[in-house]
Design goal:
Rossmann fold, seven-stranded mixed sheet, alpha/beta, about 15% strand, 2 domains, about 325 residues, four-stranded antiparallel sheet, Chemotaxis Receptor Methyltransferase Cher, domain 1, about 35% helix
């Protein structure tokens, strides 16, 4: 399914292959294991001068700065791609990928070198903050006519990786602000990697990851594979249909028709940018927030000195103090 297509539209393809997940499923999984990080193939090497060329190319494409200690990562992550192309050296690969018409190959390179570690309900404190403080306030505001957008909720998962984050948020929203009560909830989920977006759109995960999901939400919103799909689980269609996936470069300004957003999740993404590109990314994020909209970042990320328009509510949780973004041609913010 192409990125940007609402998942779930091919819902009948797996009919009968998944059933409700047993909430007592017992699993033991190392969710941080990354096979791609096993090291650099011995037959691939990069000189300091060539590494600097890759640094500049990757930075120009994404705003991500690959530190000088990442030579082994570069070699290890690109090894499989070079083998697929039949190229034996990084020098030859650079000459190819740097070509002005090689947009698709540069996207493949970015797919290979970006880190996509994620899991369901990562950093649980953020989800507790939503359930205990944010959703009750939204309900009260909607009931008293204090939300200009009423029961319309828009969330952006920026750097969504393979989909665990937006699906986690969608499950929580479906539980607390259900469509049956008139809530209109949509999530935009973006990433620069086509590879992880394709995986996210399928909404199928190893059943071992069931351990990451609260049992009540697991039972309500996940299906467990049977027969040839044994060992897998799938997000239920009603959750899939809340999320739209799309490829997007956070280092480039974009007009997003889905916004402005009530909340944006950009967690454990900013750590890969240098100060200049981090500033650009944060600017690109906050311009799409509602007034008083929320920005959630990772536990190692601090935005206090990055944007004067953000007020810290708690560590890693910020409120936007500016006005909602007005799209060109609009007379007022939505």
């Amino acid at each position: 399914m192409p990125a940007g297509t609402a998942p779930g539209k091919d819902k009948d393809r797996d009919a009968g292959k998944f059933r409700n997940v047993d909430v007592d499923v017992d699993v033991d999984v190392d969710v941080d294991f990354d096979p791609a990080a096993l090291g650099r193939p011995s037959q691939l090497s990069v000189s300091p001068a060539l590494f600097q060329k890759f640094q500049k190319l990757i930075y120009a494409e994404t705003g991500i700065w690959l530190g000088s200690s990442k030579t082994a990562l570069l070699c290890g992550r690109l090894f499989r791609r070079l083998r697929t192309l039949g190229i034996t050296s990084l020098k030859d690969y650079y000459e190819r990928v740097a070509g002005p018409e090689q947009h698709e190959e540069r996207a493949r390179m970015i797919d290979a070198i970006t880190t996509n570690e994620t899991r369901f309900f990562r950093e649980p404190r953020h989800f507790d903050f939503l359930a205990q403080r944010v959703f009750p306030r939204w309900r009260v505001e909607a009931e008293h006519g204090l939300r200009p957008q009423g029961k319309r909720i828009r969330i952006w998962s920026a750097g969504c990786s393979s989909g665990e984050e937006p699906y986690s948020v969608a499950m929580l929203l479906a539980r607390h602000l259900p469509a049956e009560q008139g809530w209109d909830v949509r999530l935009l989920a973006t990433d620069i990697s086509n590879r992880v977006l394709e995986k996210a759109s399928k909404a199928v995960y190893p059943v071992a990851k069931a351990a990451e999901i609260p049992k009540d939400l697991l039972h309500c919103f996940m299906l467990r594979g049977v027969n040839e799909r044994q060992g897998e689980m799938k997000v239920k269609v009603e959750i899939q249909q809340m999320v739209d996936f799309r490829r997007l470069n956070l280092d480039q300004a974009s007009d997003l028709s889905e916004g402005p957003f009530d909340a944006i999740f950009c967690r454990n993404v900013l750590i890969y940018f240098d100060a200049a590109s981090k500033g650009r990314v944060v600017t690109n994020l906050v311009r799409h927030l509602m007034a008083n909209g929320l920005l959630f970042v990772g536990h190692a990320e601090n935005l206090t000195s990055v944007s004067a328009q953000l007020r810290s509510l708690e560590p890693t949780i910020y409120a936007y103090t500016g006005n909602a973004y007005t799209k060109p041609g609009d007379n007022q913010a939505h």
